[in-house]
């Protein structure tokens, strides 16, 4: 949708700030220590937890079918939820976000957004 495309540059910029302020480091989507995160308007956003990875979190410049990321409440969940909160703020109805968890479980992500 057009709203997502228009907001994606700001979502990437927000993700860069969020990662810089996160208490928990992240790496590339495969979970391999030598793989860099993907943070670009062309390739999207893709990351995983450092030392304690689970599933990669990925946001693409063009939204397609339903995608998901299970963090298993590992430390990088803070970064993932913060990025999703900002993505929703930037894109509004251009992105739909849901969670298996409760809003209270997004507390660390909300606090991270407040810190930036």
- Give the overall shape, derived from the CA principal axes: globular
Q: What fraction of residues sit in β-strands?
A: 5-15%
Low-confidence stretches: none
| Nearest-integer average pLDDT | 89
Helix content: 25-40%
State the major sheet: 4 strands, antiparallel
Q: Which value, in Å, is the CA radius of gyration?
A: 13 Å
| Assembly type | single chain
Terminal CA distance:
27 Å
Q: Helical element count?
A: 3
Taken in chain order, the helices and strands follow as HEEEEHH
Structural class: alpha+beta
Number of DSSP-assigned strands? 4
Kindly describe this structure.
The chain has 116 residues and is an alpha+beta fold. 38% of the residues lie in helices and 12% in strands. The chain is built from 3 helices and 4 strands; from the N terminus they run αββββαα. Strands 1, 2, 3 and 4 form a 4-stranded antiparallel β-sheet that branches. β3 (44-49) and β4 form a beta hairpin. The chain is globular and about 35 Å long.
Secondary structure: elements and pairs:
Blueprint: H1 2-21, E1 26-27, E2 38-40, E3 44-49, E4 57-59, H2 77-91, H3 107-115
Antiparallel strand pairs: 1-3, 2-3, 3-4
Helix pairs in contact: 1-2, 2-3
Quick recap:
With 116 residues, this protein is α+β, with helices and mostly antiparallel strands. The chain contains 3 helices and 4 strands.
């Amino acid at each position: 949708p057009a709203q997502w495309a228009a907001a994606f540059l700001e979502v990437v910029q927000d993700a860069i700030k969020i990662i810089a302020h996160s208490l928990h480091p992240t790496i590339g989507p495969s979970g391999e220590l030598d793989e860099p995160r993907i943070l670009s308007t062309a390739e999207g956003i893709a990351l995983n937890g450092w030392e304690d990875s689970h599933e990669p979190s990925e946001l693409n410049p063009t939204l397609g079918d339903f995608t998901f990321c299970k963090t298993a409440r590992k430390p990088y969940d803070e970064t993932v939820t913060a990025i999703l909160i900002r993505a929703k703020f930037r894109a509004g109805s251009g992105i739909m976000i849901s969670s298996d968890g409760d809003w209270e479980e997004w507390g660390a992500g909300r606090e991270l957004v407040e810190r930036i």
